[in-house]
Amino acid sequence: MIGDLLKKPYIPYGRQSISEADINAVVEVLRSDWLTQGPAIERFEQAVSRYCGVKYAVAVSSGTAALHIACMVAGLSQDDVLLTSPNTFVASANCAFYCGARPDFVDIDPVYYNIDADKLAVKLSAMAEQGRLPKIVLPVHFAGQSCQMEKIHALSREYNFTVIEDACHALGATYKGFRVGSCRFSDMTVFSFHPVKIITTGEGGIILTNNEEYYERLLRLRTHGITRDERFMEGTSEGPWYYQQTELGFNYRMTDLQAALGLSQLDQMDAFITRRRQLAKQYNEALQNLPLILPQEHSDAKSAFHLYVIRLKSDKVKKTRAEGFRMLKEKGIGVNVHYIPVHTQPYYRKLGFSQGDFKEAERYYSEALTLPLYPAMTDENQDYVVSSLREVLK
Ligand SMILES: *Cc1c(COP(=O)(O)O)cnc(C)c1O
Known about the structure:
The chain is α/β, with parallel strands linked by helices. It folds into two domains: 2-10 and 269-392, Aspartate Aminotransferase, domain 1 (Alpha-Beta Complex); 20-266, Aspartate Aminotransferase, domain 2 (3-Layer(aba) Sandwich), CATH 3.40.640.10. Helices cover 39% and strands 13% of the residues. The chain has helices at residues 2-7, 20-30, 39-52, 63-73, 91-98, 117-129, 149-159, 212-222, 256-266, 269-287, 321-330, 346-349, 359-367, 379-393, and strands at residues 56-60, 81-84, 102-105, 136-138, 162-166, 174-175, 178-179, 188-192, 205-209, 226-227, 244-245, 292-293, 301-302, 308-312, 368-371. Strands 1-9-8-5-4-2-3 form a seven-stranded mixed β-sheet, sandwiched between helices. The protein has a three-stranded antiparallel β-sheet with strand order 7-6-13, with no helix packed on it. α3 runs parallel beside α9 (256-266) and α10 (269-287) packs parallel to α14. It is globular and about 75 Å long. The two termini are 25 Å apart.
């Protein structure tokens, strides 16, 4: 019995891949003169911006910090509205509160589970009538697949809002042939480097933009609102020691240890994405005859497959999602659910949102199950997940 338990593998839904080169890169920083905000930060920023095809990058301490200061430079303030998807991690909406603003949501489309650009158009037209247009629209590229950015970008011209892409799932994805992060159809793009994401720095995040003013201000907000650049000072510099705090910022710095890890991880990007996409394809093939809805890829978008989410066809499966979840966990399979619709969280309910507000996201949530997917997952791991799922669905 106990022997069986010990032998049982545990396959998490996601995990980092750390190479010897990654470890050596971090150790090298430990032996250097800089632990934080040294030369690795700029090298990492340049490498990410080159990879994504964008002009500027500002590395910070988390994806959440990145969302916060991106909202600040977009001018989000008291009583403004930020629109995002309910099918996301709470951080995508919480960043509005950090600026004294209010988040609101637009329901998802039923096929790709991203913010529905047509519903967004309807909402914007209603908001325009009330004279209450959003300052920011923050599309989230769910599971690694880009939203319909061309439509959202066109709406931003019509209704004059800033577009910030929450691409925490989507490093390595493309949209209409452009890398996500190029900001071809947005003002800023944010990535997270949390260990379950596409590459990791332990904790970490980055903001990408082609806007020089945004870039300069993001640099200051990352470090207390302090500048050493005379161009941004009131009056003149008093000497080489001199700095000024010109507004209220934060300590959102990434360390050099983290940046060195990120740089080394970037070297493996192509291998990571190739393996993620290969595993997704193998899942698609192995699961096609089961009573499941499998992930669909839009012809304009190539997903990074941060997540592989299936939906149980509730009319054809005898077990509930909760039963399926529990049975797979018992088999050592780290299934998960992405996401509990943000508007149904107690914090959001207290502010007036309720169950029923965004029905597509709620329906999706009731059937969704995230299967394990990460670059180091072996074909044997995957076969075990597939055969276990078959048993559960019997
Ligand atoms: C992970 C994640 C975040 C937050 O990133 P952190 O680095 O954990 O702060 C925000 N939005 C989405 C969609 C995420 O998946």
